[in-house]
């Protein structure tokens, strides 16, 4: 196993925890399998409510987030995660059929509404998600988070728990 | 009016026809004369003069009767307009007033003074001009409304096409995601020799191929203009078939599916086969709504009821009620648009739209009543009299 750098294959078996939130069972299974086979631990949730509960219990390093879901959509879950002292450390990767432009627009509206307190999402992959794109974005996000938490070593120790 | 406006002069006295005829010709009219009302009417129909000048007292049909007939013909014709001026004898003021009530332009009293004649003719021309102007204005307005309506319809159709394409693109993106997922899972399953991945990938592949098949079938059905083959039939028949066909599916969903239809209903002219499809769609939706509300084989209590009732005028009403999850206001407003579905992965978003199309092709209507969380009722009304819009 290589110590992953963002620019190579993107397969960073950082053994981090990824919470996959999507209302469609097939996509949930698929995205979870992509992370699982790349060495991540995974958990799944069906909507924003369940996603928040699982995140509180399980403390993921990364949340793969669908936007259009019944009961609490993805943007609302994103807001709740970022408002939580502990959970805001998790990276958020949006995986959605909504085009990137439309998504950024609606997010900027929500951010304006929140008085600029809401940060940008960490990454974005449009559906249908290619396995490489998911892994590349995830590795990039986790690496940036790790660097923020002072050094990749510290992250490896954390993630190894 | 053209260079030589026509005028029809009707009087049984030859002298008056001659003198008044000359006087009118002198004023620039092309004068036609008749010695009685019957002949006048024939000439009026043939020459369509805009002004008729007639004596009241004549043997046979009198001037008032001629006036009444002419006004009635003008009203029903629409393209021929005329003014009728009455000629009255001395002391015939009562008849003259009767004439005005019958919409005569004016009356001139014998012996006819030039001034009185000029005033009457001017008034006739004025009234003709005014009515023509109003007619033209109205037609202009109608043309304008028609043109604006056409433009609006075109714009609406374009918007509908845009919406449809956007919806279709979303549906295809979801299918592509499913297929991408299947490929990935099958690949990893083979690579790692993991049976779970192989099974998941295989199920996903089958499910998505099924979805593609359904989507293309429904799109085809939707795109094809519904070719109705209406015939008089027992309107309860398609309802009975659908209730029987869906009985098993209902049981599996923990739903009690019932039918209320009177025996020996009067026949209604409809296409039983396509209506069968509509009812399958509505009852299928009702079962899905019950499942979404949490009913199932382990948790029974779902209810779906199909009711058939005769309508006044020989039509029929079908209603499908359920105690399922109900619809939000937003869902209700978008229910009949293409590719809108409340069922997530399960729905193509074409079923209700197709149903509505079929019902409307029968000259009927479809309505929905629902509150989120308390169930839904769809009703279809097919009108009687066997009149179909197509």
What is this structure, in a nutshell?
The complex is a heterodimer of chains A (161) and B (390). Chain A is an alpha/beta fold.
Strand tally of chain A, please? 5
pLDDT average of chain A, as an integer?
Answer: 79
Largest sheet data of chain B? 5 strands, parallel
- Helical content of chain A stands at 40-55%
Counting helices, strands and paired strands, the structural category of chain A is alpha/beta
Number of domains of chain B: 3
Helix content of chain B: 40-55%
**Largest beta sheet of chain B: what is the strand line-up?**
2-1-3-4-5
Backbone CA Rg of chain A: 15 Å
User: What is the general shape of chain A?
Assistant: globular
* Rg of chain B, nearest Å: 37 Å
Features:
heterodimer, A: 161 residues, alpha/beta, Rossmann fold, 5-stranded parallel β-sheet, 6 helices, disordered N terminus, disordered C terminus, B: 390 residues, Heat Shock Protein 90, 5-stranded mixed β-sheet, 12 strands, 54% helix, elongated
Question: If you had to describe this structure to a student in words, what would you say it looks like?
Answer:
The complex is a heterodimer of chains A (161) and B (390). Chain A has 161 residues and is α/β, with parallel strands linked by helices. A 5-stranded parallel sheet of chain A has the order 2-1-3-4-5, sandwiched between helices. Chain A is globular, with a radius of gyration of 15 Å. Chain A is built from 6 helices and 5 strands. Chain A has a single domain, classed as 3-Layer(aba) Sandwich (Rossmann fold). The model of chain A is unreliable at 1-13 and 150-161 (pLDDT under 50). Chain B folds into 3 domains: 6-112, Rossmann fold, CATH 3.40.50; 152-223; 231-382, Heat Shock Protein 90 (2-Layer Sandwich). In chain B, helix 4 links the parallel strand 4 and strand 5 (106-109). The radius of gyration of chain B is 37 Å and the shape is elongated. Chain B starts with 5 loop residues before the first strand and ends in an 8-residue tail after the last strand. The chains are: A alpha/beta (161), B alpha/beta (390). The interface between A and B is medium-sized, with 18 and 21 residues.
């Amino acid at each position: 196993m290589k110590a992953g750098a963002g620019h190579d294959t993107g397969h960073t078996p950082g053994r981090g925890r990824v919470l996959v939130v999507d209302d469609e069972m097939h996509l949930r299974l698929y995205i979870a399998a992509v992370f699982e086979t790349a060495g991540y631990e995974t958990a799944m949730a069906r909507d924003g409510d369940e996603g928040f509960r699982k995140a509180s219990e399980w403390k993921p390093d990364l949340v793969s987030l669908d936007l259009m879901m019944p009961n609490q959509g993805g943007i609302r879950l994103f807001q709740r995660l970022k408002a939580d002292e502990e959970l805001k450390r998790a990276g958020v990767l949006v995986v959605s059929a909504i085009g990137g432009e439309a998504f950024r627009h609606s997010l900027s509206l929500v951010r304006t509404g929140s008085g600029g307190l809401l940060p940008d999402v960490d990454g974005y992959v449009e559906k249908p998600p290619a396995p490489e794109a998911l892994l590349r974005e995830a590795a990039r996000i986790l690496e940036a988070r790790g660097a923020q938490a002072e050094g990749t070593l510290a992250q490896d120790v954390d993630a190894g728990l | 009016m053209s260079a030589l406006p026509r005028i029809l002069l009707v009087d049984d006295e030859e002298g008056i026809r001659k003198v008044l005829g000359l006087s009118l010709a002198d004023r620039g009219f092309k004068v036609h004369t008749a010695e009685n009302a019957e002949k006048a009417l024939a000439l009026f129909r043939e020459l369509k003069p805009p002004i008729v000048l007639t004596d009241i007292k004549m043997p046979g049909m009198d001037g008032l009767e001629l006036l009444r007939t002419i006004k009635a013909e003008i009203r029903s014709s629409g393209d021929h307009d005329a003014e009728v001026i009455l000629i009255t004898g001395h002391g015939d003021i009562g008849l003259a007033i009767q004439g005005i009530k019958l919409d005569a332009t004016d009356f001139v009293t014998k012996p006819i003074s030039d001034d009185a004649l000029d005033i009457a003719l001017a008034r006739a021309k004025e009234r003709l001009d005014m009515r023509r102007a109003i007619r033209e204005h109205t037609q202009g307005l109608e043309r304008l409304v028609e043109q604006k309506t056409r433009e609006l319809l075109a714009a609406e159709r374009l918007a509908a096409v845009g919406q449809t394409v956007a919806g279709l693109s979303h549906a295809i993106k979801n299918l592509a995601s499913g297929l991408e997922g299947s490929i990935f899972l099958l690949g990893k399953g083979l690579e790692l020799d993991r049976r779970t991945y192989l099974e998941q990938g295989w199920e996903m592949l089958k499910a998505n191929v099924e979805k593609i098949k359904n989507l293309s079938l429904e799109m085809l059905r939707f795109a094809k203009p519904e070719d109705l083959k209406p015939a008089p039939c027992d309107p309860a028949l398609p309802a009975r078939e659908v209730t029987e066909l869906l009985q098993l599916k209902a049981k599996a969903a923990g739903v009690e599916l019932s039918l209320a239809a009177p025996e020996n209903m009067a026949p209604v002219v409809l296409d039983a086969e396509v209506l069968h499809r509509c009812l399958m769609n509505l009852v299928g939706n009702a079962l899905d709504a019950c499942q979404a509300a949490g009913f199932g084989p382990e948790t029974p209590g779902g209810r779906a009821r199909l009711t058939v009732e005769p309508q006044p005028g020989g039509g029929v009403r079908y209603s499908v009620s359920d105690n399922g999850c109900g619809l939000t206001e937003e869902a209700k407003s978008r229910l009949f648009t293409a590719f809108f579905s409340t069922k997530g992965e399960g729905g193509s978003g074409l079923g209700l739209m197709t149903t509505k199309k079929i019902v409307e092709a029968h000259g009927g209507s479809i309505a929905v009543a629902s509150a989120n969380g308390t169930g839904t009722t769809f009703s279809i009304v097919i009108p009687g009299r066997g009149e179909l819009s197509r």
